[in-house]
Amino acid sequence: MANAPVQRMSQLMAKTLRDDPADAEVLSHKLLVRAGYVRRTAAGIWSWLPLGKKVLTNVERIVREEMDAIGAQEVMLPALLPKEPYDATGRWDEYGPELFRLQDRKGGDYLLGPTHEEIFTLLVKDQASSYKDLPVILYQIQSKYRDEARPRAGILRGREFLMKDSYSFDTADEGLAESYALHRQAYQRIFERLGLDYRICAATAGAMGGSKSEEFLAPAEAGEDTFADCPNCDFAANTEAITYQLKPADPAGLPAAEDIPTPDTPTIETLAASLGVPASATLKNLLVKVDGEIVAVGVPGDREVDIDKVEAHFAPAVVEMVTEADFAARPDLVRGYVGPQGLGDKVKYLADPRVAPGTAWITGANKAHTHAKNVVAGRDFEVDAYVDVVVVQEGDPCPNCGTGLRLDRAIEIGHIFQLGRKYTDALKLDVLGQNGKPVRVTMGSYGVGVSRAVAALAEQHADDKGLVWPAEVAPADVHVVAAGKALQTELALDVSGRLAAAGVRVLVDDRAGVSPGVKFTDAELVGVPTILVAGRRSGEGVVELKDRRTGEREELPVDEAIARLTA
């Protein structure tokens, strides 16, 4: 086994901190900064220090090994990209303000790559001419750029981040399904090797387009995604992807709609209290602007509108909330008393499937201080489009079996898409088929958040003392601590050299003038799986081994300790 390097903390370009950074909100942000893994360069932009780079490189290695194992070929494409391919697919505009746009000295338009579907498609168009050149899977591990409006949570939501993106190219949908399955299995192996707890969840395709889409989510309090899973079956999905089935009711026998005076009841809460009815009996109508046009969104009064779902439905159009000025310009829209009946062609009406045909509601009467009861969907108003737009709640029925769903927060660490022909159509990627005729190529896109995985690991693998890295991603195998003066330091360096000669990666705390207490605290903060202490019994040739995760300690003769660590 080749010698492994010994990293001496006396030479390490990193300083640990006793206190959390003032701007840190989540655990990974606090610990990665305090333990000397990363430092903030600007909002959403981070520098990786030596220990952090080692962890990042280990994650890359695992990802690379598993991608190579499915026959994927690694390339490296530019991050500075021309506008034209993104114009061809519409994403130059669709990405909106998240896209970093810039011009060269000649006025040419460029962008910093947020993702590379277009560029990979053009690469294959240049290199592949026949069905014999396919299928192929290409990937890269590269920095990506997105101008987040509110970069936060340390490396979890940055404006520059490291990502593995891969792309499959096949001549038939069956081949795409096979490439998708290969990636799905590879991702499972990647996240298991990383030591991450994860869920595979149905997801929406969003701006990426395509048909089938699944996310790999790591449960964590710091997660920006909410997912639901069923305790009774194998259903799991991002809440944005959960839909409710339209269940029409029979309106026969329902009385006619009737206006009722409801002074000072502009909110669902005040209305329900005034009439003595549950909020679920009322119809909430939220007004938004879609590319400047006002649209009403109807949901049961006890539910909240999920704006992300509304935006996804209208994408790439821009969705905004209406303002006081909008109401002033539309006197027919009475704030707090809007109802779908009477809107006619003036306002497009979008409704959640729970507002099904035949259901009756109490809703605004489009008059100040007035509501209407017995307002029936399909009889008194028409719905232009049904889209599940409510915020999913704990206990909502599972779409598969009806059992109440559980909700949890999670970090997105991977996403796989069956893109189909969205990009190959736009960029006209054809190859010559077996019958001698052109065949339009079908495509998949697959991403792993490499830097995000480091943050997810820090969220899931930590305790009240600091980080607790899984062995395969840790910056070292053993953290040797010289807990004293010359004798202990001499033994610590000797043990470190012997371990390194056997291929064990060693971080040794040989700092002079630093108290043993500080060294012990730093060893727990840094989170290497095994801590070896050259302490009070160094003169006897005895060291202490400590398991960072369990806290178990054992005193052993040096030779026995080395034998155990190199077995």
Index terms:
567 residues; alpha+beta; 9-stranded mixed beta sheet
Task: Set down the secondary structure blueprint.
Elements: E1 6-8, H1 27-34, E2 38-42, E3 45-48, H2 50-69, E4 73-74, E5 80-82, H3 84-89, H4 91-94, E6 101-103, E7 109-112, H5 117-127, E8 136-145, E9 160-170, H6 173-194, E10 199-202, E11 213-219, E12 225-229, E13 236-238, E14 258-261, H7 268-275, E15 283-290, E16 293-300, H8 307-314, E17 319-321, H9 324-329, E18 348-351, E19 360-367, E20 370-376, E21 385-386, E22 406-420, H10 422-426, E23 430-432, E24 438-440, E25 442-449, H11 450-460, E26 462-463, E27 466-467, E28 478-482, H12 486-501, E29 506-509, H13 516-526, E30 530-534, E31 542-547, E32 553-557, H14 558-565
Parallel strand pairs: 1-29, 4-8, 16-18, 18-21, 28-29, 28-30
Antiparallel strand pairs: 2-3, 5-7, 6-7, 8-9, 9-25, 10-11, 11-22, 12-13, 12-22, 14-20, 15-16, 15-17, 19-20, 22-25, 23-24, 26-27, 30-31, 31-32
Helix pairs in contact: 1-11, 2-6, 2-11
Short description, anyone?
25% of the residues lie in helices and 29% in strands. By secondary structure, it is of the alpha+beta class.
